[in-house]
Design brief:
Helix content is 0%, strand content 39%. It is an all-beta fold. The protein has a four-stranded antiparallel β-sheet with strand order 2-7-4-5, with no helix packed on it.
Length: 196
């Protein structure tokens, strides 16, 4: 999927033979030759016929890519099967950067009765000023809507949909304990801490 302007856009996926699927996760993959062209935001809707209103399934924003052709999997809180899915307003998140490329876009069903694995990060990690850090990736799948307290040092970001922490610290800071909160795909919250 490619888009080269900042206009509103959408893509509708309709399943054959009035088939309905319970979609509870989406995976998006950014461009293979530049980090800057992946979508940072979009909305996903579902419905079963053209006479129905669209139901918002996910309002995705704040996606960050740290490698080429990186796949981002995030979870939706949907418990209803739909026949039609509408992706709306893929955007880079920056008003003047309108070119974006999506290598793949996949829809998945996740077992809501399964308990997500325990959320955790490595207990202690180091980042060095002015040197890009290796991504800090949470253990445990089935989480989204990540937040962190206190704020990360300037230059580091947490991807709110995947919990990946990446970037280049711009200044030195004291050793700090961070608390990460996330929402489980089947409801409820989880918290974990790490030291950096």
């Amino acid at each position: 999927i490619e888009d080269t302007n900042c206009a509103e856009n959408y893509m509708i996926v309709t399943l054959d033979n009035d088939r309905r699927e319970w979609i509870s996760a989406v995976e998006v993959q950014n461009n293979f030759n530049t980090l800057m062209q992946g979508p940072a935001q979009f909305k996903l809707y579902g419905r079963n016929s053209a006479s129905e209103q669209w139901t918002l399934l996910g309002d995705i924003s704040g996606l960050h890519y740290s490698t080429y052709a990186q796949k981002k999997l995030f979870y939706l809180y949907n418990n209803k099967p739909y026949n039609q899915f509408k992706f709306e307003n893929f955007a880079t998140g920056e008003a003047l950067k309108c070119v974006l490329t999506i290598l793949s876009l996949n829809l998945y069903t996740v077992n809501y009765f399964q308990t997500p694995a325990t959320l955790s990060y490595p207990a202690q990690t180091m980042a060095f000023r002015d040197i890009e850090m290796a991504e800090l990736i949470p253990e445990g799948t089935g989480y989204s809507e990540f937040t962190i307290k206190p704020d990360l040092p300037n230059g580091l970001v947490i991807d709110p949909m995947t919990g990946w922490i990446s970037g280049t610290p711009l200044n030195a800071t004291a050793t700090t304990t961070y608390t990460v909160s996330a929402t489980k795909f089947n409801g409820g919250k989880s918290e974990t801490t790490f030291v950096m």
